[in-house]
Amino acid sequence: MQRTPPSQLRQVLATNVRRRREQLGLSQERLAAEASLDRTYVSQIERGVRNVSLDCLDKLAHGLSLEARDLLRPNGSAGELKS
């Protein structure tokens, strides 16, 4: 099975999740626990491998103390919010 490259929006999400997680000093494991997700799933999101559902996006945002829409803003603006 051939993988398609991640969409631009998926890459924005990946960058914003990683940046915010690191700003908060959270490990992938801790974020996964806060968001009720598996650590490997968080890793796949941060690498742009996973196509995330809206429910998962909401869980991630909660775990990162953001609104879901903040994770989809380009240019790393999620990291500038609620720092």
Number of strands: 0
Fraction of residues in helices?
A: 55-70%
Question: Judging from the principal axes of the Cα atoms, what is the shape?
Answer: globular
Rounded average pLDDT: 89
| Run of helices and strands | HHHHH
Total domains: 1
CATH classification, class level: Mainly Alpha
Radius of gyration: 12 Å
- DSSP strand content: under 5%
| Main β-sheet description | none
Q: What would you call the structural class?
A: mainly alpha
- The tally of helices reads 5
- Per CATH, the architecture is Orthogonal Bundle
Give the CA-CA distance, first to last residue: 40 Å
CATH superfamily: lambda repressor-like DNA-binding domains
Low-confidence stretches: none
Determine the CATH topology.
Answer: 434 Repressor (Amino-terminal Domain)
What does this structure look like?
The model has no long low-confidence stretch (mean pLDDT 89). Helix 2 (28-35) crosses helix 3 and helix 2 packs across helix 4 (54-63). This protein has helices at residues 8-23, 28-35, 39-46, 54-63, 77-80. It has one domain (8-73): lambda repressor-like DNA-binding domains (434 Repressor (Amino-terminal Domain), Orthogonal Bundle), CATH 1.10.260. 55% of the residues lie in helices and 0% in strands. The protein is built from 5 helices and no strands. The protein starts with 7 loop residues before the first helix and ends with a helix. The protein has 83 residues and is mostly helical.
